[in-house]
Amino acid sequence: MRDSHFPIQVTGTHEVLGACPHDCPDTCSLVTTVQDGVATKVQGNPAHRHTDGALCTKVSRYTERTYHLERILHPLKRSGPKGAGQFEPVSWDVALTDIAQRLQAIVNRGPEAAQAILPYSFAGTMGLVQGDGMAERFFHQLGASLLNRTICASAGSEGLTQTLGGKVGMRVEFFAESKLIIIWGSNSITSNLHFWRYAQVAKRNGAKLICIDPRKSETADKCHEHIALLPGTDAALALGLMHELVQNDWLDHDYLQRYTLGWDALRARALQWPPERTAQVCGIPSEQVRALARDYGGCLQRKEPAAIRMNYGLQRVHGGGNAVRAIACLPALIGAWRHRAGGVLLSSSSQFPVNTKALERPDLLAGRTPRTINMVTIGDDLLRPASPEFGPAIEAVVVYNSNPVAVAPESAKVAAGFAREDLFTVLLEHFQTDTADYADYILPATTQLEHWDIHLSYGHTDVLLNQPAIAPLGEAKSNTQIFRELAQRMGLSDPCFTDSDLTMCRAAYGDAVDFEMLLKHGYATLPVAEAPFAQGGFPTPSGRCEFFSARLQAQGQDGLPDHVPNHEAVGTSSEFPLAMISPPARNFLNSTFVNVKSLRDMEGEPILEMHASDAQSRAIRSGDVVRVFNRRGEYRCKAVVSSRARAGVVNGMGLWWRKLGLAGTNVNQLTSQKLTDMGQGPTFYDCLVEVEAVAGINVNTK
Prior knowledge:
702 residues, alpha/beta, six-stranded mixed β-barrel, 25 helices, 27 strands, 18% strand, disordered N terminus
């Protein structure tokens, strides 16, 4: 056991159990080998069944990231213009004293003014302690603006909650027993490797794998069938599938009667979606709709388990919440939930009994109700003046676990907002990212190998503990310690600001999880039923799978799932005729790992995948530098004419740091700040563009 009272072993060779902190459903258990105080190797824990000794390429190189020559190890203060990336070293005392005084001056003007302070963070670490534990306590005490952390999954989370009652679903390990696996909106080989291992077991045992994705991904290559629908048409396909299930009576009428709500209304809606209409909207052959229904309905006839693995790509469009709702309804139609290897999984995170109140202490708000800023609209909000509707202009931003200048949509506005001379920006970071170039202070943060943390997962149902393997490098401090020291300098006297990281790790689950087991093994499995909804019991208000949501209707929305067209649907603009999606590059994770040279060398350079017909009509060849543009901006990258792109859709593989792009921008120069139908999420994959070759430039070396 190690915390500040237990010195880290610095002699000899030993292994330390940890957890991968990154934004991935796999949440792997790690084993770090340490020799004389230096981490020499990071491996997957073979004793953890979901990790099974295997890591993705990114995390297996975690020591390269931790010991990177460009890692920031001392506090830095801006010495040049914002955006220029010019800094000088300062002491921790100078940095923290100045930051505390600047924030205190805002707070001293009163509760309304305190909302001019904004925290901005997301999933640079998924840890419950280093994520938003101590930080939320700090900002609650100040009365700062609240942040609506929507940038990844909020539309799908809301859609799932309105249908199943929470972020719940089948257990991932039982996909290995399924006879039909539909991988919907996920490149699992890249973004959900350990689920893919279960799917491969099922495939070897005779299961059919179907991939539904606008892009012919690496996962699609390995499936029996690929359905390349247009972006934002997933709900239409789900409704078309329902139509065929109804028409052919491939329905579990007993399950529908006992365990669902609103079937008659959903049935009527599904009958409006024959295969021909579905195919026209989705841009696919009508026979693909019929064949999908035969495969899915056939599992009911043969009493075989059918499973759907959704991921978050499909909900990053205007109708993303409705799309997840429609897909989440499907297992109940054929009674797939009766099998432990049947049902659907998008996220398992609601099954974790996290004591959020103990970690984040919302009681410190003491009755205040600060405004909430949506992190997706940070570009507009940083440029917004004070008004009665908005409140005070944002004067100070504290960024941690995020890189908004690279990852937030419509990034020209984001960069312009952070370039404001009157905006005070503090960044907790490992490297000089795009956002760091605009900071007034960069504070060196510890990596996962250097601090305590505790984790849930959104892809399995094991709690993981991370123990520090090495002492913090240089002058790096954990996020929690930085906020503790800021609280001390600002005179925040609540005892919670002295809680150690180990204390917070213990508080995260309280008595719901055996902490001694976590210390010994690195993980603990939650007691989740093998087939949780075999007899209903959904965590909805009715206890049923809610095809019809009274809660949505009360909000003025359609109580039934429906196809909601994209804000920028294919065929609605002659000026910008191509849809663009921006799926993650295989060797990066959001904007993390982009500066790890070995991974960047594997990735190559920023590319745009184009279908041959779209490239030919624009006289574009593989290797050409192209200008991808719309009214929000332009982005330059290398074109790759590829069968991975379907006609009418281009794939801007992301997410590169802007400064490492060909012209100082990345794909988010083109994405919009428009929001989803529910959950106020981003619409990254709801984006129309045009593409043209940049005259005289071809970088193809083949």
